[in-house]
Design a protein that fits this description.
Elements lengths: L7 H6 L5 H58 L6 H14 L3
């Protein structure tokens, strides 16, 4: 069975703190976190912007693939135009050439 003796070095490094020392330590920790909040807010903004950019890229790629599929189908003469495809095409043309 394993020997369960206490480590004397550990007890020396972690002395018992008084209530005043604990309160002081708590205030130091709170101040540390409050000082870091502005940095974390900037990081959160950065991450949200990256996410928005990636979402816009994915949507653009999806739209391009959809348009390519529609044009390929029209060239082949296989599929007649659907109302959804017509609506999408009109929206894309409006986006490219606003009124």
């Amino acid at each position: 069975m394993a020997d369960t003796k206490t480590n004397p070095e550990l007890s020396e490094k972690d002395p018992q703190l008084t209530k005043e020392q604990l309160a002081e330590r708590r205030e130091e920790i709170t101040a540390f976190y409050k000082d870091n909040i502005p940095h974390l807010e900037v990081q959160a903004d950065y991450e949200m912007l990256l996410s928005a950019i990636e979402k816009a890229r994915a949507e653009r790629m999806q739209a391009q693939m959809y348009m390519a599929q529609q044009y390929a189908a029209q060239k082949e003469g296989g599929q007649p135009s659907t109302p959804e495809a017509d609506e999408f095409k009109a929206a894309m043309e409006d986006a490219v050439n606003p009124k």
